[in-house]
């Protein structure tokens, strides 16, 4: 792990511990205990549609080059790597693309579609953030703790749109610019090839596929808000689905601007704890929700990462035997 990421991780952990201690263990674990094992099982199931739509978003860019389950498994691996390994979100993208390659997607298509998929997700996130701010604007302005940040949230959302446009334009400006951008988070051996750049441009010349991918990403964001609503419900908090859209959109924006912190440690905990009271629940419920989401990531993510390691290990062993 790079020293910068390590420092960010330590700072995030310190923030998470501070928030937990400040709110109090008893209150937090009372909310978690309210969910019980049955509630936790429901939390696991309610997260599946999110991954399903994210997989459809990626598949929309490439078409049925491999079975749908490959996209589903690769996207879950991408998220599990981001949530559990000491990487930023960019590392998870590379691992997810690698899984697709092992299942039959060509390296150039896997990595180039991952770049365009990020663009589609950003476009959807911009729409989702706008929707969330519109829903929660009145409550945010009425909040003593968050009212002062409302203008910054609005400005940040407005700036996100030209940022996405610039990202797309720069990728289409030619081989050098596209390779330079992609080279920031994709293997250089792939990023700096004419074929890779040509594939990027080919994907952007199919606006219907890009629009469909963005639509599935937007549905996935909304599904994530419904999942959040389920978690609040099993914890005993009475927060509506529309309010959860507002909470999730703001939290997603916070995670986006703190992408350098692995797994958004501390940011997620503090964010939910701060936002829950704005929409009618105590901070202990917000923190309980965050910890239950982390628990889900661990319970599902560890088997997924172990399975990936087994596949990679088996492949490496086979390559040695052939050599």
From TrEMBL:
Keywords from the named record: Cell membrane, Membrane, Transmembrane, Transmembrane helix
Protein localization: Cell membrane
GO CC list: plasma membrane
Transmembrane segments: 36-58, 84-106, 118-137, 149-170, 210-232, 271-292
Family matches, as InterPro entries: L-PG_synthase/AglD
Pfam families documented for this protein: LPG_synthase_TM (PF03706)
Membrane topology summary: Multi-pass membrane protein
PANTHER family: UPF0104 MEMBRANE PROTEIN MJ1595
Protein name, as recorded: Putative membrane protein
Record organism: Rhizomicrobium palustre
């Amino acid at each position: 792990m790079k020293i910068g990421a390590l420092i960010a991780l330590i700072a995030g952990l310190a923030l998470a511990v501070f928030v937990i201690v400040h709110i109090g263990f008893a209150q937090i674990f009372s909310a978690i205990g309210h969910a019980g094992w049955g509630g936790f099982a429901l939390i696991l199931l309610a997260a599946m549609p999110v991954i399903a739509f994210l997989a459809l978003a990626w598949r929309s860019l490439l078409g049925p080059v491999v079975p749908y389950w490959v996209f589903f498994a690769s996207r879950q691996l991408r998220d599990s790597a981001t949530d559990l390994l000491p990487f930023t979100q960019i590392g998870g993208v590379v691992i997810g693309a690698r899984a697709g390659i092992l299942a039959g997607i060509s390296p150039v298509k896997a990595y180039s579609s991952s770049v365009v998929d990020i663009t589609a997700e950003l476009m959807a996130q911009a729409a989702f953030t706008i929707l969330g701010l519109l829903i929660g604007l009145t409550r945010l302005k009425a909040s003593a703790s968050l009212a002062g940040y409302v203008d910054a949230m609005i400005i940040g959302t407005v700036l996100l749109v030209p940022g996405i446009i610039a990202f797309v334009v720069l990728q289409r400006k030619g081989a050098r610019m596209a390779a330079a951008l992609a080279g920031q988070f994709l293997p250089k051996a792939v990023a700096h090839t004419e074929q890779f750049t040509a594939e990027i441009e080919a994907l952007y010349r199919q606006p219907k596929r890009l629009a469909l991918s963005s639509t599935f990403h937007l549905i996935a964001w909304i599904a994530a808000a419904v999942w959040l609503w389920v978690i609040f419900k099993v914890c005993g908090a009475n927060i509506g689905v529309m309010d959860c859209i507002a909470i999730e959109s703001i939290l997603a924006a916070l995670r986006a601007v703190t992408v350098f912190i692995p797994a958004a440690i501390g940011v997620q905990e503090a964010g939910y704890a701060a936002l829950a009271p704005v929409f009618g629940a105590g901070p202990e419920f917000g923190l309980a929700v965050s910890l239950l989401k982390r628990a889900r990531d661990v319970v599902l993510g560890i088997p997924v990462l172990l399975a990936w390691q087994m596949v990679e290990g088996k492949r490496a062993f086979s390559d040695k035997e052939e050599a």
